[in-house]
UniProtKB/TrEMBL annotation, chains A, B:
Keyword set, alphabetical order: DNA-binding, Transcription, Transcription regulation
Gene3D superfamilies listed in its UniProt record: 3.30.450.40, Winged helix-like DNA-binding domain superfamily/Winged helix DNA-binding domain
The organism's place on the tree of life at top rank: Bacteria
Keyword Transcription assigned: yes
Protein name: IclR family transcriptional regulator
Classification via Pfam families: HTH_IclR, IclR_C
Domain HTH iclR-type: 8-69
Domain IclR-ED: 70-249
InterPro entries: GAF-like_dom_sf, HTH_MetabolicPath_Reg, Tscrpt_reg_IclR_C, Tscrpt_reg_IclR_N, WH-like_DNA-bd_sf, WH_DNA-bd_sf
Amino acid sequence: MGDSRRGRSVLGRALAVLGSFSDERPEQTLGEIAAATGLASATTHRLVAELVEWGVLERPARGRYRIGIRLWQLGSLAPVARDLRDSALPALQDLAAVTGQVVHLVVLDDHEALFVERLAGHTDVPVRSRVGRRLPLHASGPGKVLLAHAPAEFVDEFLARKLPRTAAGTITDPGRLRRALADIRSTGYCLSRDEMTDGASSVAAPIVGPSGEVVASLSVVVPSSTENLQLLVPAVRVTAAAVTRALGPRSPLGGKRR
Amino acid sequence: MGDSRRGRSVLGRALAVLGSFSDERPEQTLGEIAAATGLASATTHRLVAELVEWGVLERPARGRYRIGIRLWQLGSLAPVARDLRDSALPALQDLAAVTGQVVHLVVLDDHEALFVERLAGHTDVPVRSRVGRRLPLHASGPGKVLLAHAPAEFVDEFLARKLPRTAAGTITDPGRLRRALADIRSTGYCLSRDEMTDGASSVAAPIVGPSGEVVASLSVVVPSSTENLQLLVPAVRVTAAAVTRALGPRSPLGGKRR
C-alpha cells in the first residue's frame, strides 16, 4: 500500500533525525541535522518541529536542538536501565566507595562495548567512558571480558576485522587477543594497562544472568601508576558476584528461562 | 499539504505508541498498545514492527514489547543526564556512602517531580522512586523544594488544584503547604515525614544553576523511625552546594547566560 510505504518512510526519517544526535554531537542546528541525515531542509524543519512539540527534542537556544527530557524518560524504561542497572547499582556504589575509583557497567551492543553506568571516583584518571557511549570491544577490560564470553563465531568474525589502536597498550594482534580472551575465561577476570587510554588501567570481571550466560561486565579504573592491579581483583570479583546474585537465581539447567 | 498532514500523523502515532509504555507498563502486548493508543490493530502492528527494526522497541518474547536499548542510548544524550546527572553524581555518591541511605536527584517536569537519579542505600526504606518516574510535587521533600522556588503564578495554579494524599503525612491543605514552602525558602532546606510513603522521611535541599535559579533538588531518605532528621541537614546542604558548584559559576548579574 502506498500509505504504508509513505508511513514507514516518515517514521524512518524521524528516527534518522534522532539518530543524528550522538555523544560527539549532542546539540545540533537544523542545517547540521539535514546534512547528517541527507534530508531536505523543509522535511528536516517539519520533523524537528513535531519532535519538539512532543518533548522528544528540545530547543535550548534559537536554531539549536538537543535530545529532550521526554526521550530520556522513555529510555529509562529500557531493561538495560530498569533491570540491569538498578540491580547492579548497590554493589557498584560499594565498589566505588571502597576503592574511590571510577566504576563501569558495560554490555555488548553489536560489535561494541556500551557503557550502561559509570560511577565517579575520587582520583583523577583519564577515562573516555560516559553513560550511553560505545567503545571498541578489544580495547577495554570490560569489553574484553564480554568478547571472551561471546560465541566462538562472533569472536572469529571480530578477530578477522582490524583491531584499531586507541592507546599504547591496546592489543592489536588477533593471536595475542585470542590468548588474552582464553586467559580471561580461565582466570575469571581481566587486567588491562593503557589499552583504552594512556594512563588508565583496569580490573574487570563478568556478570552472569539467570540464563547462565554472561550478560554484562564491570570494571574499576585506576591510574596506570598503580603497581599491583592484582590487589583489586578480589573486590571486583566479589562485586561481580553480588550483581550476578542480584540478577536472580540461575536456572538449574543453565538454559534460558524463556 | 496532504503529505505533510499525513506525515505529521504517522510520527504522532509512533510517538503515541512509545508514550503508551510507562513505569507501570514497561512491557506490553500489541493488543495493550492498541488499546492504550486507540490505534487500529494493523496500524499498531506496522508501527511496532518498524520501531523494533530500529531497536527503539525490543521483543523479549513472542508478542511482547518493551523499550529498546537504542532509545535508552539516545535518551542518555539529554541534558538532564549528560549535564545535570553527570555533574551531580560524585557529590550524590559521597552523600550515599556517608549516610548509607537512598539519595535522590529531582527536577520539575510539568507539574510533577521527575526523579533523575536514585542511588541505593544500605537501609531498607520504603521508597516509591525510580529513575524516570514522576511523583506528585507536594508529596515529597525534593518536590516541595522545587515548588518553593517555582514562580508565584505556578504555585498559585498548583495550590488551586486538588492535593491528593499519598501517605499519612501528606500536606493536603493549600494554606499549610504555602506556609511549608515559605519555611523552605527561609531555612534553605526541607524536612518531610511520611509524606510520600508511610515509613519514609527525607531531608531535601535546592540545587542552583548558573542562571541563579533553582534547577533541581536532592534528598536523602531515611526510615521514619529516625528521631532527629535535623542531624542530616548539614550533609544534605553541603551536597547541594557541591552540586551547585559543579554546575558552573553563577552569572554575576544573576541573569540567564543565554
